[in-house]
Design goal:
The protein is built from 14 helices and no strands. It is mainly α. Helix 1 runs antiparallel to helix 10, helix 3 packs antiparallel against helix 8 and helix 5 packs across helix 8. The relative contact order is 0.18. The C terminus is likely disordered.
Length: 305
C-alpha cells in the first residue's frame, strides 16, 4: 500500500498537469486508455487471458461507475487546489473505508477504532478550515465526493477479490471506467497536443503499476488495516508541490495532516493488537480469520512465480 500511494502520487501530478489543458472527464479517459495496454500486455505474455473472465460482473460494473466519479471529481479537485490541499480533503477516504467496513463487510470494530476515525476526520476539518468558504469550495467538495467514491470502490475491491483474480479486477475496472468516461466526455472533447503524448504514455505506465499494487494490497488484508497507509499521500503531495509548483502547505494543513496521520497509525496499532490481546486473555492463540485462510489457500497458485 505504501508503494501504491507513492506511485499514485506521481500519477496525480501528471493528472494535475493535464487538467490545465483538458476537461476532467477527458483526463480520466486518457488515464484509463493509457494504462490498458500496460495492464493487458503482461497478461497476454503470461498466457493468463482466462483469468480475465468476470464472475461478479455487476460488482465490476459498479466499480466502473465509482471510478468515473472518483477520477472526474479528483481531477477537478487537483485542478482547483494544490496537490497537498486536495489530498487534505481526500485523506478522509481511508477513514470512510474503515467505517463502512463494519456495516458492509461485517468486520468487527471497537470504540477505540471509532475514536481514531473521528479524530482523523477532525484533522481533515482542521485542514479545511472551520468556515463555509473552506468547507464548501468547489475544489474541496469535489475532493470529498472523490473520497466517498474511493471508499465505496475499496469496499467493492474487497468483495471482488474473494472470487476474482487481480488482473480481472484491474482490467474490468479500467475498461469500464474508460468506456463510461468516454461517452460522457465526447461532447466536449479537446484535441490532444503532440507535446502531451509523452505525458500520457508515462501516465499509462504509472497508473497500471499503481492499480496492481493497490488491488493486491486489499487482497492481502482487510480495508480497515490497509487503507490508513493512504495517509502517506500527504507527504508525497507536499514534496511534489514544492518541486514542481514551488508551493508549500500552510501550518494549518500540516497540523491537520499530523492529526490524520496519528489517527491512522493508532488505528493500525489497535486493530493489529486486538486479536492477540483477546487470545492472551483466553489463554490461547487467536483463530485465523477467513481472509487469512483464503490467502493461504491460494498463495501457491496465484502468488508464486
Amino acid at each position: 500500500m505504501i508503494a501504491a500511494v507513492a506511485v499514485f502520487s506521481c500519477m496525480d501530478a501528471l493528472l494535475k498537469l493535464l487538467s490545465a489543458y483538458y476537461p476532467p472527464l477527458q483526463v480520466a479517459v486518457l488515464r484509463g486508455a493509457a494504462s490498458l495496454p500496460f495492464t493487458l500486455l503482461p497478461v497476454v505474455l503470461a498466457g493468463r487471458l482466462k483469468e480475465l473472465r468476470p464472475r461478479r460482473f455487476r460488482v465490476h460494473l459498479l466499480r466502473g461507475v465509482l471510478s468515473v466519479v472518483l477520477l472526474g471529481s479528483f481531477v477537478y479537485a487537483v485542478h482547483e487546489l494544490s496537490l497537498a490541499n486536495a489530498y487534505a480533503v481526500f485523506l478522509s477516504a481511508p477513514l470512510i473505508v474503515a467505517g463502512l467496513s463494519v456495516p458492509l463487510l461485517g468486520e468487527r470494530s471497537s470504540a477505540g477504532t471509532w475514536a481514531a476515525i473521528l479524530a482523523g476526520l477532525a484533522g481533515v476539518i482542521i485542514m479545511l478550515r472551520p468556515s463555509s468558504a473552506g468547507l464548501f469550495s468547489l475544489g474541496a467538495l469535489a475532493a470529498l465526493v472523490g473520497a466517498v467514491a474511493y471508499a465505496l470502490s475499496a469496499i467493492a475491491v474487497r468483495v471482488l477479490t474473494r472470487t476474482e483474480s487481480t488482473v480481472s479486477v484491474v482490467f474490468w475496472t479500467i475498461s469500464l471506467m474508460t468506456v463510461m468516461a468516454t461517452m460522457l466526455a465526447a461532447p466536449g472533447w479537446v484535441a490532444i497536443a503532440a507535446r502531451h503524448w509523452p505525458w500520457i504514455a508515462l501516465l499509462g505506465v504509472v497508473a497500471a503499476i499503481a492499480q496492481h499494487l493497490l488491488t493486491h494490497a486489499f487482497r492481502l488484508a482487510p480495508p480497515s488495516l490497509v487503507a490508513p497507509f493512504e495517509y502517506t499521500a500527504l507527504l508525497w503531495g507536499i514534496a511534489i508541490d514544492r518541486i514542481i509548483w514551488h508551493v508549500l502547505p500552510s501550518a494549518r494543513v500540516l497540523t491537520g495532516g499530523g492529526v490524520v496521520i496519528a489517527s491512522g497509525l493508532f488505528l493500525i496499532w489497535r486493530e493489529s493488537r486486538q486479536p492477540w490481546q483477546a487470545a492472551a486473555e483466553q489463554g490461547r492463540m487467536p483463530p485465523q480469520s477467513s481472509s487469512t485462510v483464503e490467502h493461504a489457500a491460494r498463495l501457491p497458485k496465484e502468488d508464486s512465480p
